[in-house]
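Shall we go through a protein fold together, starting from nothing but its sequence? Please make up or recall a protein chain and show it to me in full. Go ahead whenever you are ready, and we will take it from there.
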Amino acid sequence: MKNSKALLLLKVSVFLIFIGRAWQHLFWDAPYRSFFWDESLLKLVITGIFTISWKDYVTSSTTDNFIQGIIRSNGILYLIAALCVITINKTNKKILKFPIILGGVSLIILAVLLTKEKFYHGAQFFEHSIQFGLPFVLLYGYKNFDQEKLILVLKILIAVTFFSHGLYAFGFYPVPGTFVDMVIQIFGCSESVAITFLYIAGIIDFVLAVLIFVPKTSTYALWYAVGWGILTALARITANFYVEFPLQSIHQNLHETVYRLPHGLTPLVVIYLIRKRTSQHFR
């Protein structure tokens, strides 16, 4: 990628995704139990191969320690990937790309687990498109990747992420209580007003997913995505910050803001790429 500003912003975005998820996995929790405690999937394996009862399996401290170990191991992987993102360049990319690839694959698995936890709602998986897609885009950026294709791929990731998010805000799926609570906390409004606000935001997300592909409206739609993506990321810490215990509030919620900031930074990458392309046309 010849656009140094876009490449730097892309690296920052991928770093934030990995470091945010590392923070989550090393200090908090992740939905791996939704798989390892799924009786319909694993009961026959546990009772047949390991010859222990399902009840003993799910109540065993050994099982819990095993799951905790997987969560922490993934946290370490994300941390290593984040450090590789900072230091990767054309010289060392052959070595450092492997932790980034593994981190990207782990993000895909995490999105699948989050989807399973949310009753297999397709939007739950695709809402994380930017997060699990950017690590691979970054690696392609270090190749002589066609700029038009790069812009298209990034636009698709943005459109799918915002459209999927809009399906929840609009009410196609049950509106998450956390969405409603955040709006109420930030604006001090009633529940009905919060739901109406989210409904309108969902419609705008749908429109955005189309307008970023229309040449005359693309830049305007992308700037909206920058603002809305950053605001929705900051909402996680703003709505859950308590003056009574500030450090605990930050430690418990900031990672959610960190790995969502790229939802606003990725459209900015596309804006830089488009500007670079336009300036080249006029030379």
